[in-house]
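Marked as duplicate of an earlier ticket. Keeping the data here for the record.
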Amino acid sequence: MARIVPSLSLFSLGLAAAFAVAAEETPAYRTVNEVIAASAPADWRSPDPEHTLYLELPAGRVVIELAPWLAPKHDANIRALVREGYFDGLAILRSQDNYVVQWGDPDADDAAKARPFKTAKARLAGEFTVPWRDDMAFTRIPDDDGYAAVVGVSNGFWVGRDPKSREIWMAHCYGTVGVARGNETDSGNGAQLYVVTGHAPRHLDRNITLVGRVLSGIERLSTMPRGAPPMGFYETAEQRTPIKAMRVAADVPEAERSALEVLRTDTATFADIVEAKRNRRDPWTKLPSGHIELCNVPLPVRAVPTTADQP
């Protein structure tokens, strides 16, 4: 396959202070699950159906939320591909151990067999980073990072920032979805996508366009049989898992949508969750680390009961 995966806001400052206060003044330790259980309804948000994708596999649905402010051109092109039915009937192409699962057209490199585009663009300039705007959501994580000057979360997505160059980008954490490309920076268009299913390959940050993350159903991808080494591509059609369909959630009848909520990352509840992970004081932990890596920051998602779930 040619396309393979090879200055703080006032709110952020306030939340950083909240982390410090939580570390010094929290009277009793609560686990992440206990913090979530005590959360208020206002601490949660519903994903935007216009920027949520359903990847339908024989084993069930994978729900992907897109981050249009971090990759606006690719967000639009991927939704165009989905709406023209591009992915329907294609396949999971690759499952590389401790790395990624990739899907798209197995004949993409054969001009005579490749599935044609209808309205989507065949080439897009890479959106490895985007310019930082002061109105962008950003919650800083109060720990150093080897891959970015500043790290944090932007409205539910792990991100890095460079205050000097005024750039922001998504980070390669478990469940993050990206756009496979070749050597040329404009060779990725969203027709082949991948999801991180292993230890966070942060060395890929700012070298490839990231577009979103899996909210639900990651186990349907991470448990795929591993393909042939070294890169995990399946060698025969029989080894590939077919894609039944891919849809924009807004185009699916409301009764058939996945009812999910994502924890807002601009809340005191989120600050408490990060603190609970940074300084574990439960009976089992003997040495709290006082530190958290970006990709270990939890971004909770929960299912919302619907009328169909009631007895």
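See parent ticket for discussion. Residues 10-303 form a domain with the Cyclophilin fold (CATH 2.40.100.10).
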